[in-house]
Design goal:
mainly beta; single chain; eight-stranded antiparallel β-barrel; 15 strands; 273 residues; Porin
Length: 273
């Protein structure tokens, strides 16, 4: 995980996020009937972490608000918050899901975007598809071990008192964002409202345990986490900081009938709009 964060930070430092073609007004020569028009290409190099889009070639550092396409690498929308399991509309787990009882303050979500492609319609509205990673860490209360390669989601009781028993999933996330933003206020910052659908593809699941008897142990499997998930999200921000909430409409687990209707939601703070 640490190596991944460092690699992404290095990549973001060399990102190219916008290419645009501008046409200059026609220039008249001194001749009576000689008219010359020119076209020039300009490529902007930008870094989007917590900053507005700024041109590296513009000495006045002013933003380009003209309509146009933007694309490239980014390191933005870093989400840090809490996850909640929703069991058929209730935050209380049913008997068949009680083995997933978890510590609410230690069950977390982390995610960020590293790619982006979008179109700005005007200074206030744009749409973009981004790609990144999303982790959900469920901190289990019970001393159990989720079984690998089981036909359904199953577990084994343990006589070990775990100091940490974490059940996690990792997804590639693909949110489609519709963003409205205000004009700059007196502090040079904007208000933002961003919402849209969120899609995800499973990378893997993991059980991570820590105990005096066995030390640190990690087990990787898909653990019946749904391979494709879909839902919606909303972000409210001011400047480069804000709040987010997500809700996934399909079940957390697949091919495991006892977990039918068990869904996931998350909420927290977001940095680097």
């Amino acid at each position: 995980m640490k190596q991944l964060f460092l690699s992404l930070i290095l990549l973001a430092g060399f990102q190219f996020t916008q290419a645009s073609i501008t046409e200059e007004p026609a220039a008249h020569s001194s001749g009576a009937d000689s008219i010359r028009s020119t076209k020039s290409k300009k490529t902007d190099v930008t870094f989007t972490w917590g900053k507005e889009e700024r041109s590296s070639k513009d000495s006045t550092r002013t933003r380009s608000k003209a309509p146009g396409v933007s694309y490239g690498l980014t390191l933005s929308r870093f989400d840090l918050g809490f996850s909640k399991l929703v069991d058929n509309g209730s935050f209380t787990l049913s008997d068949q899901n009680s083995f997933l009882d978890y510590h609410g303050w230690k069950t977390s979500t982390v995610g960020f975007d590293i790619l982006q492609f979008g179109y700005r319609f005007n200074s206030n509205f744009k749409i973009y598809l981004s790609g990144g990673f999303d982790w959900t860490h469920i901190r289990l209360r019970r001393d159990i071990t989720i079984r690998k390669d089981a036909p359904t989601l199953q577990y084994d009781e343990s006589d070990i008192d775990f100091d940490k028993n974490r059940f996690s999933s990792t997804y590639i996330r693909l949110p489609l964002s519709f963003e409205w933003r205000s004009k700059d206020d007196d502090n040079g910052k904007k208000f933002r409202i961003i919402a849209g659908p969120d899609f995800g593809f499973l990378i893997n699941g993991k059980v991570k345990q820590k105990s005096d008897e066995n030390g640190k142990q990690k087990f990787n499997d898909n653990y019946h986490f749904t391979k494709f998930r879909y839902g919606g999200f909303v972000r409210l921000g001011y400047g480069s900081t804000g709040l987010f909430a997500k809700y996934y409409l399909n079940d957390m687990f697949e091919n495991s009938p006892a977990q039918e209707g068990l869904q996931n939601m998350s909420f927290g703070v977001s940095f680097g709009f």
